[in-house]
Amino acid sequence: MREVLLVGNPNSGKTTLFNSLTSSNQHVGNWHGVTVDTVQKSFSAFGEDFMLVDTPGIYSLTPLSFEEEVAVKKINEGKRKIINICDQNNLARNLYLTLCLLEQGFDVVVAINEIDKKPIFKVDCKALSNILGVSVVQINAQKKVGFDELKTALLSTNTPKKLGYKLPENPEEAAKVRYDKIDEILLKCSKRTKQVYGKSKLDKIFLNKFLAFPCFLLILAGIFYLTFFSLGDWLSSGFGSLLGVLTKPILSLIDRCFGQEFVYELFSSAIFGGLGTVLSFLPQVVLLFFFLSILEDSGYMSRVAFIFEDILGRIGLSGKSVYTLLMGFGCSTSAIMTARNMDDKHAKIKTAILCPYMSCSAKIPIYTVVGGAFFGAKNIFVIMGLYFLGVVVAITISKMLDKTILKSQKQSFILEFPPYRTTSLARVGKILWKNSKDFLIRVGSVMLSMNVIVWLLSNFTFSFKYVPDCQSASMLECIGRFLSPLFVPLGFGNWAVVSSLLAGLVAKEVVVSSIAMFNGIDINASKLLSLSLLSSSSVVHFSSKASVLSFLCFCLLYTPCVASISMLLQEIKTKWTLLSILIQLFSAYVVSFFVFNIAFAMEIFGFFKIFGIILAIFCVFLAFFVVFKKIKRKKCANCENCNKCK
């Protein structure tokens, strides 16, 4: 089986071509970090089998980041067939990599990808092929146009022509020589049809310095409303009811066949109950991924990276971190993996550490069930506040690390704006299926196992006696009661609440399923789960809204799931992973403590009185800070004439 490398600039349609040729579903995006390692899969071309290897996007054979090092190393492993994909609208830049490959004598097939219906350039592929001495084919990677010509070109051997220039040793002068050659080539074989690639009237709104952030927040608010309320809530309720109908006859059969209470409870509470509670929130998870995939494909997300570049630069990160952090809203584990694309080692470590502070999809059931019980329709503001709080805490921690032990260097940030596009429903469907499948696999393996373990710990004593028969404290209750005093200052010293947090270390979804199991709520009564939290007679209950807010903040900030921890170990090693866990536990405890006490005081004394006190304290601290900074500032030797020191 012959190996073929797929090489190209970022955002040239490389991964789309890989997916189309191999019938795969690798993630596609318009920024750094989407492809961070090589991916390979076989395909056939007229009876001959090939192994296609997708590499991270590069601009030349001189790597500037980790992902580019991966690609260049793979290219230099040996002479083999290379498909060099070029965006038809960015030929002037894309052909720079083509020339670098031809200079090294690689056997290249140039695939000109027509991404837009109205391209900037019209290319004469035959003329370009004659100039370069290699096969040049016109394709549309998404619509699978030109694939027969591409496969035919793979079966032939290409010997590049001498390009007629000598490269000077100075890299800048060498680059100029290549670009001069590219201008000469384009003059002979292409014709411009319009002016600026990617320019849109929408950018007057989405990139406006006054409107950019309000638009971004408005879009997020709309997504949250549709996901957690309205459509998402309706779908979750219907799905939960359907699960109840499907499992009821199975549980009846189990009861008739075994006739043992603990066997029935094992299946009812631990297996079907736990899975059903979480699966009822699957529609909301799917909706969240649906909206994120639309934002990605539309070209808007690359604008978001540009918007946040300046802000993130102030805390030792770069616009490249935006994609990683936004991925954290979906899954922290996969987000941490993309942090490896940072140019600066310290920025990479900080970005990976910050990922768990983004509210991943696994926390959606916690926010919906617990928050919905106490805040009803106003829970949308609580959820938005939690998402915002996670970002604020992440920024604060990044700033502190940047000023102390992880000072970052100035990083280069190259970003192109693709045109705004409408997404393909087929591709969105594939993304939703992939994410849903991953979610279900996680639920069906880790969560099912953990639910059974939690059920055993909560129904048997240390002497392995069944709790309902002996009326003694279970193993989990003993552990929870031992740790619960630590959480009394946070407002939720209930042993079962603490135990659900311990279970959540394996997977955050388990928090809700544990609460359902402790309160004896069955899957066809998901609404009762929220109501049970209001009753003091329930095993898991909360005494006030302040304690609920504190609990939600702790769930947001404390140690992520085992899968995320293992990914942190892989990407930033043991020392930084342990430090991140300590920071997470400390920040979760401190923030929850202040949230509980401030919220509790507001419940007693009123909102405006406590808000006034907090504002006054803030003003005092701000005044001391300004004075301290003024005194601490060192003056230069020529301070009388220095504008900076005046």
Molecular structure report:
It is a single chain. This protein is of the alpha/beta class and 646 residues long. It has 26 helices and eight strands. The chain has two domains: 2-192, Rossmann fold; 213-413 and 424-603, no CATH class. Residues 29-33 have low confidence and may be disordered.
Count up the domains: 2
User: Based on helices, strands and strand pairing, what is the structural class?
Assistant: alpha/beta
Strand order of the largest sheet: 2-3-1-4-5-7
Low-confidence stretches: 29-33
Sheet bearing the most strands, described?
6 strands, mixed
Number of helices: 26
Query: Which percent bin holds the helix content?
Result: 55-70%
Taking all residues together, what is the mean pLDDT? 81
Radius of gyration based on Cα positions: 29 Å
The global form is globular
> What's the count of strands?
8
Cα-to-Cα separation, first versus last residue? 72 Å
List the helices and strands and how they pair.
Layout: E1 2-8, H1 14-22, E2 39-45, E3 48-54, H2 66-75, E4 81-87, H3 91-103, E5 107-113, E6 121-123, H4 125-132, E7 135-139, H5 147-154, H6 171-189, E8 190-192, H7 203-206, H8 212-228, H9 230-258, H10 261-279, H11 282-298, H12 300-313, H13 320-327, H14 332-338, H15 345-354, H16 364-375, H17 379-403, H18 425-459, H19 467-470, H20 475-483, H21 495-503, H22 509-518, H23 526-532, H24 545-557, H25 562-605, H26 607-632
Parallel strand pairs: 1-3, 1-4, 4-5, 5-7
Antiparallel strand pairs: 2-3, 6-8
Helix pairs in contact: 3-6, 4-6, 8-9, 8-11, 9-10, 9-11, 10-18, 10-22, 11-18, 12-13, 13-14, 14-25, 15-17, 15-25, 16-23, 16-24, 17-24, 18-22, 20-21, 21-22, 24-25, 25-26
